[in-house]
Each structure stands twice: as structure tokens, then as C-alpha cells.
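User: quick one, sequence for these C-alpha cells?
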């Protein structure tokens, strides 16, 4: 078989499929999201475990777009399940935010970074701006967000407000995807603006995910498993699936069988035991799961060096406070 390019450093599903990168099929993640009865799902996973890629995949699957993205899923596992699931492809308005790069030293810089991301997401739906279905005050709110002139309260309410606008425009409830929600929280703890970021994120998340009548489904990823009594206070519709849960446990990272096939496809069968010893997968309820960044980086390396390609540098003291 022709050896495909490896998607080292790529986290956009469409880019990977369009450029025919090697892709380990995780599209049954879509089925599990659809089948999950709780409408807000939190999935804490280690760093470099494919979280952004999976949420990107959800976006391209669910989002209603002018040009269909259905072709991206041709011949993948979700497509083989038939119309029961594929009839949801391209059926919903989607809000997609990733906070993975909001790693600042101060609250002001963090707030600016979050405002920029919210602004960009509103601009992605700029067709709403001139829609006659928005009241004058709502258009003024939209303009304040996109001109970065809104108050802190305006930005705290932005998930809920944008989802309301989208539901009214599309006559369809909204899917909200929030990737690496806790990255700025970690910075806040380590750089001494924790109380400010926690206050903002509590209100931001509450507006978007708690008692939001415009919400069809919400999916959040992060590093931390936080207490439902703190930042997610009162969010009774939240289901948390950690690495100790049986659900979703093979949807992030690579399973042993996936690593074996990957090595085989790149003519590295004889390296399996070395890779297994060196990269020693995480044990998720009896299933060994490997860090994709480490495995892909090893295979892509010119000399096939067995070395550390990733190290966890986070401060676990943050978990105690959360």
C-alpha cells in the first residue's frame, strides 16, 4: 500500500481528510455523542490526546453549512451506520471555540484572548448581523461583541446569546463545542488571577450550558476533572466521563490494536514491543491507550528514535483548588 502522510501537528479534521493524511477512524465518537442521554458532556483527557481533532470532527459532522461536508465521512465508520446517524450530518447550527492557546500571564491578556475568540465565532456567523429577525438591541449587542466593545458581562453571556440568535435563525437548537475549557483556568492559578478567571468561566459556562433552552448538545474537553460543586455548580444536565469511565474510553488516544496497525502500515511491525515498552500506554479501565503525539512523532522521525516527544508540565495542585 502507498504510505500516507502522518498528521503530526494537525488538529483540523477537514484538513486531514482533504489532504489524505493517515487517519485512525474515530468517527464512532459521533455515534456515542448522539446516543448519550445527557445533553452536556465533559471529557477530561491527558494532553496531546486528540481532543481538538475530535471536536473539530464533531463540528464538521453536525454543522449546517452552505457547502456540505458530508463527503468527509464517506467510507468512515459513522457513514457505514446508515441514515439513522448520517441524517444528522449538516443538520445543526454549531458554536465552536477552542481555548487551548489562551495561556497568558495576566487576567487582562487572558480576557483579551477570550474576547478575540468570541469575536471570531460571532463573525463566523456574521449573516446574523443584518437579519431582520434580530431586534435593534440585539443587533447592537452583536456589533459590540464583534467590535470588541462589549462589557465583561456581555462576553460572559455570549454563548447563551449567540445560541439564542442561531436557534431563531435556523429554527433548530444549537450544538456548542468548547475545547480545552480549562487552559486559561490553569494559567489563572499559576499566575495569580485565579479568582477572576473562575468567576468569568463560571458565568460563561453557566450561560451556555445550564438551563439554555437553545442547546441541543454541548461537548467540553479539558485536562482537568473538576468538581460539579465549583465551576459547574448546579449543572444537573452534565455528564462527566473521565479515563475511569467505560464510555468514550477508546475515542481519544490510540488503542493497542490501532498502534499495531499503524506500525504495520508503515512497515514497522518489528518495533511494536519496543514502542510498547517505551511509550507504555495509559490504562483506561483495562484498555491500554497510547498518546497519539508520541506514536506519530516516533513513526515520523527520520531515525525512528525512541525518545520522549511529549511531557506533562501541568501543575496538579490546581486540581485541589478546583
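Assistant:
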Amino acid at each position: 500500500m502507498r504510505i500516507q502522510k502522518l498528521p503530526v501537528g494537525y488538529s483540523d479534521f477537514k484538513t486531514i481528510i482533504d489532504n489524505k493524511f493517515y487517519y485512525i477512524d474515530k468517527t464512532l465518537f459521533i455515534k456515542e455523542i448522539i446516543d448519550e442521554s445527557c445533553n452536556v458532556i465533559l471529557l477530561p483527557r491527558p494532553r496531546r490526546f486528540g481532543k481538538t481533532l475530535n471536536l473539530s470532527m464533531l463540528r464538521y459532522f453536525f454543522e449546517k453549512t452552505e457547502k456540505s461536508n458530508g463527503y468527509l465521512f464517506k467510507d468512515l465508520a459513522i457513514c457505514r451506520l446508515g441514515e439513522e446517524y448520517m441524517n444528522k450530518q449538516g443538520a445543526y447550527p454549531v458554536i465552536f471555540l477552542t481555548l487551548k492557546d489562551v495561556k497568558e500571564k495576566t487576567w487582562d491578556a487572558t480576557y483579551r484572548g477570550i474576547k478575540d475568540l468570541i469575536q471570531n465565532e460571532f463573525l463566523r456567523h456574521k449573516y446574523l448581523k443584518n437579519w431582520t429577525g434580530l431586534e435593534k438591541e440585539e443587533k447592537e449587542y452583536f456589533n459590540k461583541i464583534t467590535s470588541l466593545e462589549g462589557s465583561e458581562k456581555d462576553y460572559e453571556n455570549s454563548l447563551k446569546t449567540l445560541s439564542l440568535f442561531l436557534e431563531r435563525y435556523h429554527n433548530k437548537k444549537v450544538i456548542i463545542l468548547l475545547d480545552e475549557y480549562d487552559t486559561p483556568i490553569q494559567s489563572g492559578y499559576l499566575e495569580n488571577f485565579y479568582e477572576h478567571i473562575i468567576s468569568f468561566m463560571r458565568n460563561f459556562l453557566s450561560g451556555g450550558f445550564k438551563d439554555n433552552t437553545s442547546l441541543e448538545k454541548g461537548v467540553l474537553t479539558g485536562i482537568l476533572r473538576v468538581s460539579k460543586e465549583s465551576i459547574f455548580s448546579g449543572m444537573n444536565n452534565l455528564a462527566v466521563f473521565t479515563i475511569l469511565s467505560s464510555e468514550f474510553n477508546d475515542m481519544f488516544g490510540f488503542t493497542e490494536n490501532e498502534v499495531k496497525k499503524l506500525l504495520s502500515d508503515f512497515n514497522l511491525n518489528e518495533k511494536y514491543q519496543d514502542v510498547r515498552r517505551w511509550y507504555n500506554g495509559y490504562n483506561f479501565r483495562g484498555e491500554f491507550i497510547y498518546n497519539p503525539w508520541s506514536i506519530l512523532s516516533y513513526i515520523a522521525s527520520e531515525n525512528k528514535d525512541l525518545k520522549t516527544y511529549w511531557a506533562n508540565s501541568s501543575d496538579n495542585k490546581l486540581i485541589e483548588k478546583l
